[in-house]
Amino acid sequence: MEISGGEEGAEFGGPRGERMLVPSLKVQDLIEEIRGAKTQAQEREVIQKECAHIRASFRDGDPLHRHRQLAKLLYVHMLGYPAHFGQMECLKLIASPRFTDKRVGYLGAMLLLDERQDAHLLITNSIKNDLSQGTQAVQGLALCTLSTMGSAEMCRDLATEVEKLLLQPSPYVRKKAVLTAVHMIRKVPELSTIFLPPCAQLLHERHHGILLGTITLIMELCERSPAALKHFRKVVPQLVQILRTLLTTGYSTEHSISGVSDPFLQVQILRLLRILGRNHEESSETMNDLLAQVATNTDTSRNAGNAVLFETVLTILDIRSAAGLRVLAVNILGRFLLNSDKNIRYVALTSLLRLVQSDHSAVQRHRPTVVECLQEPDTSLSRRALELSLALVNSSNVRAMTQELQGFLQSCPTDLRADCASGILLAAERYAPTKRWHIDTILRVLTTAGAHVRDDAVANLTQLIGGAQELHAYSVRRLYCALAEDISQQPLVQVAAWCIGEYGDLLLEGSCEEIEPLQVEEEEVLALLERVLQSHMSLPATRGYALTALMKLSTRLRGDNNRIRQVVSIYGSCLDVELQQRAVEYDTLFRKYDHMRAAILEKMPLVERGGPQVDEEAKESKEEARLLEAAPVPTEPQASKLLDLLDLLDGPSEDAQHPRPLDPSPGGALVHLLDLPCAPPPAAPIPNLKVFEREGLQLSLSFVRPPETPALLLITVTATNTSGGDVTHFICQAAVPKSFQLQLQAPSGDTVPAQGGLPMTQLLRILNPNKAPLRLKLRLTYTHFGQSVQEIFEVNNLPVETWQ
Predict the structure, then answer these.
(1) Among 320-334, 458-472, 596-610, which stretch is predicted with the lowest mean pLDDT?
(2) Region Disordered: what ranges (predicted)?
(3) DSSP string, 24-61
């Protein structure tokens, strides 16, 4: 009994010999019923019922209606419901001689199979047969399936069949064969030698789809094979002629968009020319005239023309083009900045940011336009404009650019304040014309956006003020006035408290000629610092600065110190442990060591930039290790070594009886004193290793093996950035072989500041109990000049000392 207009049924229940068929829906009826479900539960009920019919039909093995059941299952799969039980039915339909079966079978294979499942390999033979013996329609289905889900194994097995189809007389088949070849090259790059010969012939095609696919195939070949790149540089004149024909006579009116002749083909040819002309003088020279023609004759009133023009600019900038052509490209990007379309302005800003290092003077001409883009209401545009503006700052325009950026800082969105403030501070640090201007600039940034500056801003400013002795009086007065107006900006309060504590005597003298006379009383200074201590906005670190400033003022003020002593004693019972400890120590200094207070609280000595004390200690320790390694190590009994240790504590008279070993550094005595009596000489330091460098971003590794744990290796990953733009969202991941144990510590941050700012560090702990040769695989993910970058590379040249 047939039900629902010949549509098959499913068998359910019933005693033996009785077959009851339950009606199964047609594809159209199933779609209507699912769409008509008012709740998700009703939809699930309809789908579950129909899936039961489909399973029963598959079990019965009905060959006539199998493709209809699979079509319904594919619709269910598109809705997100499981349909894996139809995979084998796809294979049966593909093997069927009927076109209606093959059509649904290949569609099911593309949707239900992928290279992660072994079942996909079972259709390799069917695809091979269809490619060699099938009709054009069947060959097209097989090629589409292969280009969608073909694995590396399938690509290797079927590459020769696809190569034969590249020269078929049918344009329909050739176009699909070219696209399948592109997929094969991406999956198996070593197949490039098979597809090199047909590509040269396909470039003579007049069919739009075939030519477009051929250009894409050549691009894939050149990017993955140096031999292919060298081979196709010979066809640069032919590509130039094709593009010139597109510009002058057009290719086909049906492929023109807004008056631009076939922009998609133009863009692909320009991308291929960019690959072929990169780092090749002869090819670049061949395409220079054509690029100038495209850049000057392309209509920019429509978006299609802008797309072609932008690809032309990228090609000019990436090849070895003439200097005048590069200036023309930068000027085109400058015109893009005046476009009303936000997307075009964004693309222009991003491209100029990439160019600012190589063509700085050409980009500088468009500085006023870039600065105007800072006021864009679109945050993404203003962020790109900010990055480009910071990259354009140099010694000749630092005053004007800093003024513009400070104006932007006052009104910019909150999420941009940190980047803007950090950029201004870095620019001022690098290009400051005078120390006073530098100090004023930092103070204005701290006053405007103190809560958004980097952590090292306080240390940098205190260091700068400390090193400018002639500006001590000026700085302390400026900071006192700023603190009296606002105590909410914590970095500003910390710097002001430090400066008042160090140079409070200059504040009271009132002898600064740089600014207007200011009469300040001792009580006013103390009251201001007490207000900072009592403010609910003050952080614990800020209170520590204020308490230390009060303590230092006890030696710089001429009045009675009872008020300071009282404040210090109050904070001796503070809940904050750090502040309490500091207050207790200061109170003890008042009570027990008052005669030493003036000497202890003297002005801080000037500390050199960049942590040189640490660098000097490291340099001395390395020099000591080198000398100890070069000198012969005498073998002495343990008693002799104990006597040597005692000699360090004796007077000069004992030195004659027991000569002291050579101390290569002033800290050598301390080093020997802390050494164990039987400790071996320190091992030679492991040399550092630079493992990565791209567009100013450098990654280096330094190594330490603790003597007490020889199997443990500590690797410090240090990222530095000498480019003009910050590297943001920086993530470093590492992997080692299974015989090692790896532990990644948290990095010091996720931003590597531009222009040689504070480096970012991360510690790797690797346990190597078997002392096997170490191999390290690193993956870097970051954003630089507005582009997301991911780099994966292996480090195989680690020093032998890291594992032996």
Answers:
(1) 596-610
(2) 611-633
(3) ---HHHHHHHHHH-SSHHHHHHHHHHHHHHHHHHHHHT
Neighbouring residues of 15: CB distance < 8 A, sequence distance ≥ 6? none
Give the tokens for residue 527.
């009251």
* Cα dihedral sign, 192-194-200-203: negative
Residue with tokens 């501070």: 425
47 close to 30: Cβ distance less than 8 angstroms: no
| Residue 406 to residue 421: CA distance in whole angstroms | 8
Q: Residue 569 carries which side chain, given as an amino acid letter?
A: S
Task: State whether residue 497 is helix, strand or coil.
Answer: helix
Which two three-digit tokens encode residue 173? 């088949």
Q: Report yes or no: 801 and 774 within 8 Å, Cβ to Cβ.
A: no
How is residue 607 written in tokens?
Answer: 């500390």
Could you give the 3-state DSSP secondary structure of residue 333? helix
Report how far residue 245's alpha carbon sits from residue 462's, in angstroms, rounded to the nearest whole number: 66
| Residue-by-residue DSSP string for 699-715 | EEEEEE--TT-TTEEEE
Q: Which amino acid is at 330?
A: V
Quick check: 422 and 393 in contact, CB under 8 A?
Answer: no
Q: Nearest Cα to 270, choosing from 323, 223, 216? A: 216
Per residue in 404-459, pLDDT (tens digit) is: 999 999 888 888 888 899 899 989 989 999 999 999 999 899 888 877 887 788 88
- The residues that bridge with 9 in the sheet, in sequence order, are 23
CA geometry: angle 239, 242, 244, nearest 5 deg: 110
409 touches 449 (CB < 8 A): yes
